[in-house]
Amino acid sequence: MSLSVTEKSYLYNSLSSSPSVRPDGRLDYQFRAIEITTDFLTSSNGSSRIIASDGSECIVSIKSKVIDHTVLQPDDSLVEVTLDISGQRDDSPMVESISSLLREVYSKTIDKKSLTLTTKYSFKLYIDVLVISTYSNPISLISMAIFSALNSTYLPKLVSSFDDIEVEELPTFHDYDMIKFDVNPPLIFLVIIVGNNVFIDPALNESEIANNSLIITWNDNKISPPIRSLALNDTYCEGFKPQLLQRSMELVEKCANGITAMLQDDK
Amino acid sequence: MNVQDRRRLLGPANAKPLTFNTLTTSNESDELKKTVLKNEALEVALHTGFVSNSNGSSLVEVKDVANSHHETSLITSVYGPRAIRGSFTSQASLNIQLKNGSLEKYSSSQLKEVGNFLTNIFKSVINLPRYAKSGIDIFIYLIYDKEIQSNEKSDSTNSITSILPHCITGITLALVDAGIEIIDMAAGGIYKGNVFAFIKSGEEIIGFWKDEGNREDIMNSIDNCKKQYDEYKNMMLTYLVDKENCKAN
Amino acid sequence: MSDVISITKKSGSFQKFNWSDDIERSLNKSIYHKNDEMDIDSDEDEDEKDIDTLTSGATTSTNNSTFNNQQIVTPGELVTDDPMWMRGHGTYYLSNMTYSSVAGAVSKVNRLLSVLPLKARYSPETGDHIVGRITEVGNRRWKVDIGAKQHAVLMLGSVNLPGGILRRKSENDELQMRSFLKEGDLLNAEVQTLFQDGSASLHTRSLKYGKLRDGIFLRVPSSLIVRSKNHTHNLPGNVTVVLGVNGYIWLRKTSQMDLTNDSSSTNLNSSTASSTQGPTGSINTNSISITRLEEESSWRIYSDENDKNITNNLRKTISRYTNVIRALSMGEIGITKERIVTGYEASMAFPNIGSLIELNNMQTICEDVINAEKMRGNAI
């Protein structure tokens, strides 16, 4: 969707003024409301469906498979992420960039130990992400969906012995009991820079006039790599002052714990 | 040579093998290829305007022991601004693609991501509104890329990060060679896995990429990257001025 | 609830319905705005008695009384087996039986039986005041997205051309169409005619139509906007809203022109009420409008410049109105000037405009609007 020149200049002036006014009146660190449904896919180990107030929607399914981790290459990961965004080709720059970033984030942050079953076998997690509809960059929404899905993931309980180096046996599992997958997944935030101001979770019209934006990963209660700058539009792209990078990170630090707590909270 | 091969359709029996004239290397281009800097830590060679079917091209060869620990050589070619099909656009659409050279080192999705990142950077460098209804395509060909084994522990595992500054240098030079309007000379630096791209004498960041390290490094590495930005920018400027002088003589 | 984000959580299969809650709410929702249209219909054409509604025998819902004897049907449902009815939109006919092809309310006007869908794309009608966005600049015409099934057409001949009072279009104008209106531009216009295929042809040959400036855009389902005489309203707080019949809404700073439009209409009313004002007043307003015509039809009507001094407070007010309209749309309450103003007043209970995006607060506003109407006695 393209906005008119007058709309863009109104939005730009509102967001870059001091104090700033967002088009929907949000505070600079405030997110749009979301709705999350977890555990709705009975055939997967964990699942979530997330709907943002602008109608963006994303489904995540997590499945596991037992593999022999001794034959893995050092680069091979125990987590595989696939991404599908409806209406976008799989080789479009947006899909490729986001899936490459997701792979980078989740293969590094999910602890291999938490997936290890025995000395020989491990679980391999398949995270399948389907973005049903999206209006602005969906990266933040996807990370929240994966977060909720991983937090509602239950893996089969191992009943055979942990040490199977000497005895050649395949791991066997309990018929009913599942163990909650204990993990503290990362979150990815999108911060836009407009003039001298920074805002979290931009709506579509805000993205259209952003001078620049940053993808910031939050893992283990702190900002961690990967961090990227990203241009969300073609017309308002500009450089930004180094202080704004600092301010963006402070903004994420300000709200990240609140988001994590809200997402983990089982109510 | 004239052995009969029944499996193929051959020419007449008295056909002679095809021979080419020996290539006469043009002295001109050799002169223009400049080793602009050479010291123990950093060695850079720049060259522009040698891909004749493109509108602008550049070769960047860098051996960087101090920061990126990489020996890299890449060719950038710029095609455009050229007419695009489809509906009206009020400004040029930019597209940057990376290609592996002889060694298939990086996965295609990694290259796409880097290409996309570079596109994002150059959206704020190229004066796109000057070129309505057109497209600018930039291709980067990674000829050679090798990690330099250093004594210190190498802090780069994902080496695609370390070629980013060189890609930026290459694109900037190729854009200048193509005569496409840019707002400022863009260049970047790398320090502890943080890549910063700057314009306007380092006052404005146009791109930031970080794949490893921690949060504390970020602000500290800005100054270091700025130093590299100045270095690369000066190299490009000296090279371009020298080239103009060469032409004038 | 944290002020960073509001999250609604559910668990388990989402196909499961909570009948008592969800269905009832959605049914209630649909009633609020459907009745509005009914009201308007009855206002417009006097033959109210002809609007006949079927007695709802089939529906077994508990709150039948709230249906106002309106029948809600679903696709494929038998509406009537009486062959006397003419079949209108939203119905089909199989061996003398009339079935519904959409989900909505049955409407019967004289012998015409049609089903008005609860939610559907906007279908343009001549005279509609709409807001649209240019999608394409073509040969002597613009294509305009108005949220209907086809793009509308705005002919070069149906816009006010810059440079003096009404004049004929020239070849020069054809060449610089993009300098009047280009892709992405928003405008308000009136539906002039409908083509055979149901697509609309627009015109902006009035000073109240044209390029939109000084504000923000939002869209709501078109079923929530009630067709009325006036679609441009000046709201308290120096804000003007253009409620396009197609559900596209523009909120802007009240301009000088909005004020004169408003005052001239009130003047008219007051002059009929009190004839003591004398003729001088009316001459005065006339002369203003003539100079304005010349002024406004210059290049300025196509300017891309916003008003230079839109204060921060005004921007906040516009954001607040945006959120109020979104809340009304969430509650599926028909959007009228009165309800926006009531909602705006109710929203003052929340000093932080950003908190209005939360579901609970939206519901509070909707309830306040409905209660206020009940108090005033024009409840629905």
Automatic annotation (TrEMBL), chain A:
GO terms for cellular component: cytoplasmic exosome (RNase complex); nuclear exosome (RNase complex); nucleolus. The keyword Cytoplasm applies. Residues 30-156 form the Exoribonuclease phosphorolytic domain. GO terms for molecular function: mRNA 3'-UTR AU-rich region binding. It comes from the Eukaryota. InterPro entries: ExoRNase_PH_dom1 (IPR001247), ExoRNase_PH_dom2_sf (IPR036345), Exosome_comp_Rrp42_subfam (IPR050590), PNPase/RNase_PH_dom_sf (IPR027408), Ribosomal_Su5_D2-typ_SF (IPR020568). It is found in: Cytoplasm; Nucleus, Nucleolus. Keywords: Cytoplasm, Exosome. Its main location: cytoplasm. GO terms for biological process: exonucleolytic trimming to generate mature 3'-end of 5.8S rRNA from tricistronic rRNA transcript (SSU-rRNA, 5.8S rRNA, LSU-rRNA); nuclear mRNA surveillance; nuclear polyadenylation-dependent rRNA catabolic process; rRNA catabolic process; TRAMP-dependent tRNA surveillance pathway; U1 snRNA 3'-end processing; U4 snRNA 3'-end processing; U5 snRNA 3'-end processing. Belongs to the RNase PH family. This is Ribosomal RNA-processing protein 42. The lineage of its organism: Eukaryota, Fungi, Dikarya, Ascomycota, Saccharomycotina.
UniProtKB/TrEMBL annotation, chain B:
It comes from the Eukaryota. GO terms for cellular component: cytoplasmic exosome (RNase complex); nuclear exosome (RNase complex); nucleolus. InterPro entries: ExoRNase_PH_dom1, PNPase/RNase_PH_dom_sf, Ribosomal_Su5_D2-typ_SF, RNase_PH. Residues 43-181 form the Exoribonuclease phosphorolytic domain. Its main location: cytoplasm. GO terms for biological process: exonucleolytic trimming to generate mature 3'-end of 5.8S rRNA from tricistronic rRNA transcript (SSU-rRNA, 5.8S rRNA, LSU-rRNA); nuclear mRNA surveillance; nuclear polyadenylation-dependent CUT catabolic process; nuclear polyadenylation-dependent rRNA catabolic process; poly(A)-dependent snoRNA 3'-end processing; rRNA catabolic process; TRAMP-dependent tRNA surveillance pathway; U4 snRNA 3'-end processing. One of its GO terms (molecular function) is RNA binding. It is found in: Cytoplasm; Nucleus. Coiled coil: none annotated. Keywords: Cytoplasm, Exosome, Nucleus, RNA-binding, rRNA processing. The keyword Acetylation does not apply. Belongs to the RNase PH family. This is Exoribonuclease phosphorolytic domain-containing protein. It comes from Henningerozyma blattae (strain ATCC 34711 / CBS 6284 / DSM 70876 / NBRC 10599 / NRRL Y-10934 / UCD 77-7) (Yeast).
From TrEMBL, chain C:
Residues 53-69, 261-276 have a biased composition (Low complexity). It comes from Henningerozyma blattae (strain ATCC 34711 / CBS 6284 / DSM 70876 / NBRC 10599 / NRRL Y-10934 / UCD 77-7) (Yeast). Residues 215-256 form the K Homology domain. GO terms for biological process: CUT catabolic process; exonucleolytic trimming to generate mature 3'-end of 5.8S rRNA from tricistronic rRNA transcript (SSU-rRNA, 5.8S rRNA, LSU-rRNA); nuclear mRNA surveillance; nuclear polyadenylation-dependent rRNA catabolic process; poly(A)-dependent snoRNA 3'-end processing; TRAMP-dependent tRNA surveillance pathway; U4 snRNA 3'-end processing. Residues 72-109 form the Exosome complex component N-terminal domain. GO terms for molecular function: RNA binding. Its main location: nucleus. One of its GO terms (cellular component) is nuclear exosome (RNase complex). Residues 121-192 form the RRP4 S1 domain. The gene is TBLA0A03080. This is Uncharacterized protein. SUPFAM superfamilies: Eukaryotic type KH-domain (KH-domain type I), Nucleic acid-binding proteins, Ribosomal L27 protein-like. Gene3D superfamilies: 2.40.50.100, Nucleic acid-binding proteins (2.40.50.140). Residues 38-50 have a biased composition (Acidic residues). Residues 38-69, 261-285 are annotated as: Disordered. Keywords: Exosome, Nucleus, RNA-binding, rRNA processing. Belongs to the RRP4 family. It is found in: Nucleus.
